[in-house]
Amino acid sequence: MDEEYDAIFLGTGLKECLLAGILSKEGYKILHIDRNDYYGAQTASLNLKQLFEKFNHNKNTHTTINDSNNDIKLTDEQMKEKYGRWQDWSIDLVPKMMMGNGLLVKILVLTGVHNYVQFKASEGSYVFKQGKLYKVPATDKDALKSPLMGMFEKLRARSFFVYVQTYEEDVVETHKGYDLKTMTSRQLYKEYGLAEDTIEFIGHALALYTDERYMDFPAIHMVKAVKLYEESLARFNTGSPYIYPMYGLGELPQGFARLSAVYGGTYMLNKPDAKVIWDEITGEAIGVSATMEEETTNNNNTNKVVVGGANEEQAETEGKKSNVITAKAKHAIIGDPSYFPKLTVQVGSVARALCFLSHPIDNVDNAHSVQIIIPASQVGRKNDVYVFGCSYMHNVCSKGRYVAFVSTNVETANPEQELQSGLSLLGHIDEKFINICPIMAPTTDGIKEKAIISRGYDATTHFESTVRDVLDMYRRVTGKQLDLSKIDANEAATE
Prior knowledge:
Elements: E1 4-10, H1 14-25, E2 30-33, E3 45-46, H2 48-55, E4 61-65, E5 71-75, H3 76-83, E6 91-92, E7 98-99, H4 103-111, E8 119-121, E9 124-129, E10 132-135, H5 140-145, H6 151-166, H7 185-191, H8 196-206, H9 219-234, E11 242-245, H10 251-262, E12 266-268, E13 275-278, E14 285-295, E15 303-307, E16 310-317, E17 320-335, E18 344-357, E19 370-374, E20 385-391, E21 402-409, H11 415-418, H12 420-423, E22 431-442, E23 451-453, H13 464-478
Parallel strand pairs: 1-2, 1-17, 2-12, 9-19, 17-23
Antiparallel strand pairs: 3-6, 4-5, 7-11, 8-11, 9-10, 13-14, 14-17, 15-16, 16-17, 18-21, 18-22, 19-20, 20-21
Helix pairs in contact: 1-10, 1-13, 7-9
């Protein structure tokens, strides 16, 4: 290990790998350490065996659901007979899709990582209203055909979508006298006379806001978000603006890790004791320590040595030599919240249900991949409920199998019950895993401490909030903005 790096990363989650890849390409000397023995951290994709081991206490038997909803135990062999080879499964821990013209796709093109990963276009985008699923209308033509709205509301919605489609920030003639930088979204909706139900699916299913606070923000943000949805939708002929990686989300952090390695980045996995070293006087993060183990034939007493300019403590026991190596960082230590417990705080929790199905999700035209948004008001909640489905067509499970995820922000002491509105849309569930994850956030921007910390993953099943966090971390590390305005997302090929 080299003694000094420009930046040291802790954790190989998607956010950390994204930023490491970008900085590596810009010439930063990167060291990347993870306590796990696999890439991806919280955004990893696990095979079936890893998945059952993660969610079951007994590694030799696994809990499954029978037809009467009573739990039964299956051995490894029985599970293999039921679900096929472990290796045929690649299941996300944090399911998300990306907008076809969105920020993540632009970063993939900027870095060249789109050459390492294959993508498949999603087949449907739906919104839940009054107990039924409807395709999300995103254009003036969709508005006229959508059963979501009555005739007069369709005409008003059509006028709104025409305005959004033609709006160009730098072309005053397209503004129709509206100053969207001072006018709120609420005021713009009122100008077009849109009903509450229409506003709801525009804000939540198109602009992808998670609550109503955006209503009183400048309308320019909402219009750009809806425009992004429309532009992404136009890239494909599937009725959805989303794309999803073949073999699961875990391909993305691995792709960015490969990019960083090409530019000289160093990666160390399976370092459970990796920790930040702090300067006691300045309070700055100055380095990282981790244990390296090597095979040896000697059994000597513990001693101290210096190897390659790095400080190491050497302990030899039972044929193994352990060296505690210290690496320094010039600019910053960057990592997920779990490595910085004193600089983070829990700001919420996400409940996620991972479900195995033997059939497509009901009422979505047999789509192999789909996103469903259940607006909070439709089910008496404060937070939306998200459903994401994919299948064997994405190489994430055995042939004939389907995988569905239901997620939401936790509001009560019974998180699983909060997922019920999404679970009820899935039909018969063969297998179900419930995961409750805290959302951790940094208490400081980390610039003074030289500790740049990512934010935990929210309940949304799209990447826009994830990438915005990465762009903010980039700004805090480099002191500049990452300009993606000239990147052509169309360069990222899909199936």
